[in-house]
Each structure stands twice: as structure tokens, then as C-alpha cells.
Amino acid sequence: MRFVPDHLVLSVVVGSRAYGLETEESDVDRRGVFAAPTPLFWRLDKPPTHVEGPLPEQFSWEVERFCVLALEANPTVLECLWSPIVEHAAPAGRDLLALRRAFLSRRACRTFTGYADAQFRRLDPARPKWKQAMHMIRLMISGLHLVREGEPLVRMDAHRDRLLALRRGEIPWPEVERWRAELGAAFTALGDRSALPGLPDRSAVDDYLTAVRKALL
């Protein structure tokens, strides 16, 4: 069975093209959500939680797995819900986009900074991977905007020049460290004054998932 594209409910472009940070060499990175027919879950062998392809740089989650990751404030998954480039949205995909704020919680502060810190620890200051460094900073900018304003910042237009200079290796490493420290301090300074709710709206997500499963009986 071809879960993608036959059962695809949402497909968006992510990565540099969604962030406004693309170059001539940038790929088109696609992320999507598919909804497996409900009777397949009655079998011993369950549908996959995710599939790769069929297009290059395409990755899709089954709708339940996507919802679980979004409730956990997974940065990659949350940013899919705010991508400015939506290539396909079936009715269940449009409903998912309309529900996107139900997934948000203050847990995002920890996940966005945690993912960025993990990327930073993998960087070698003597020979840094500048593209990775750029995305580490970009993730912190996106997360800080989410905590302050209640939604992640996907388009990086206001930060484009400086981020692309970082990607080209034109910013000295000590300045990169200062930039990261400033963003980290801004997270800390917010304290409990986050625009995000304490917990996500799991009930609304349950209702959505139930409706999707009933529709696919």
C-alpha cells in the first residue's frame, strides 16, 4: 500500500526554503502527514509510524504519531504546522492546521533550547560546521518567538543577512557563542511570562484524531 501520496492529508515545505534562507544549491525539503485507513489498525501488523519518499527529501508521519510528537513540543513537527509553504492539504490536513495551537505548551521552551544545545555540543569550535551552527541559532530564534508571541517564527527575513553570513563562516566563533548566550539569556529572562499555556489541549487533539479514524472506517 502506498501511504504517500495515496493517504497524504498534509504536505508542507520546510528547511531553508521555508525559512527564507535558501541558496541556489538548496534542496526542497518536504514533511507531511498521512492517515492510514482505520481497519489496518485491527491487524497484528500495524501501519508504519512514518515513511520516507517517494519524492527526494520527503518524510511523512502517520497522523497519530505526528500528533504525539506535536504534543511533546517537538520543534521540527511544530514548525511544520506553521510552514508558509503548504503544498497539499486535504480536509483532515486543513483541520490539523486549524488545530495547531492546541498542541502548544510551555514545554516548547525546553524542547527548542534542548535541541539547540544538543546541536551546539556537536560543533567543533576549531572546525565548525557553519550550516549546522546557523540552524542552531535559527532554532533558538524560532523558539524565543514562540515563547514570547505564542507561535514559532519560521520565516527568518529579519535575521536573513546575519544568518547567511554565519552559514558562510563570516562570523567569528566567539561572536557566535555570544549570540547564542544572548538568546539563552532572553529565554531565562522571560521566566514564567510565557505566551504559551502550561499544558496542551489534549482533549481537542483526541477529538480530532477520533474524527479522522471514524472518517476512514
Question: What's the N-to-C terminus distance?
Answer: 16 Å
Helix and strand pattern = EHEEEHHEHHHHHH
Percentage of residues in DSSP E strands: 5-15%
Question: Widest sheet: strand order?
Answer: 3-4-2-1-5
The mean pLDDT is 96
Large-scale geometry: globular
- Number of DSSP-assigned strands: 5
Computed structural class: alpha+beta
Structure description:
- With 217 residues, the chain is of the alpha+beta class.
- The protein folds into two domains: 112 residues, no CATH class; 84 residues, no CATH class.
- The chain is 48% helix and 12% strand.
- The chain has nine helices and five strands.
- The protein has a five-stranded mixed beta sheet.
- Helix 5 runs antiparallel to helix 6, helix 6 runs antiparallel to helix 7 and helix 6 runs parallel beside helix 8.
- The two termini are 16 Å apart.
- The mean pLDDT is 96.
- This is Nucleotidyltransferase.
- It comes from Planomonospora sphaerica.
- One of its GO terms (molecular function) is transferase activity.
